[in-house]
Write a structure and sequence with these properties.
single chain, Beta-Lactamase, seven-stranded antiparallel beta sheet, 3 helices, globular
């Protein structure tokens, strides 16, 4: 998997090579890497909001119930205020299931499932409409696996930012 894969039905692409254009996302990935401490991925307890204050508005945390293969396995734990604005709603505390159109929710769950199964970060880039009456918005994101202590990937931390151009 070295070529970007389209996340249908969206005009968004999965980039396993992590070729970030946005410096904030490179910084977030470097922070995640620093917290690994020789492990495949860090624990949630290793991540401190105080370390990433400038990123908090565009950060999200998603709980993943292993094996994290289906729509019902994912629930949004936290969504930053910039993301609430982008989506024109707050998904905090909500499961993917029933919150989005079925095809869209299945695609998003598949993306989070890939992060959980591969146990490594992924880059997402492209453009999408995030709320009704909003224009197509160019975005870039990083999704990174975390554990709450079980040893399995049971959380995904990410940052989603608007890009100046697609």
């Amino acid at each position: 998997m070295s070529e970007p894969l389209r996340l249908a039905p969206f005009d968004l692409y999965i980039d396993p090579l992590l070729a970030f254009q946005d410096a904030r996302l490179r910084e977030m990935l470097a922070y995640w890497e620093s917290k690994r401490d020789g492990r495949a991925f860090p624990a949630r307890a290793d991540v401190s909001p105080a370390d990433i204050v400038s990123h908090l508005p565009s950060i999200f945390l998603v709980d993943a119930a292993p094996p994290a293969l289906g729509l019902a396995d994912f629930r949004v734990r936290l969504m930053g205020t910039a993301l609430n604005d982008l989506f024109a709603r707050d998904f905090t505390g909500r499961a993917f299931e029933g919150e989005m159109q079925e095809k869209s929710a299945a695609a998003v769950a598949k993306l989070f499932g890939i992060v959980c199964q591969l146990r490594r970060p992924l880059r997402l880039h492209g453009a999408a409409v995030f709320a009704r009456a909003q224009p197509l918005t160019p975005v870039e994101a990083v999704l990174m696996p975390l554990t709450t202590g079980s040893g399995a990937v049971d959380m995904v931390m990410g940052e989603l930012v608007k890009r100046a151009s697609a």
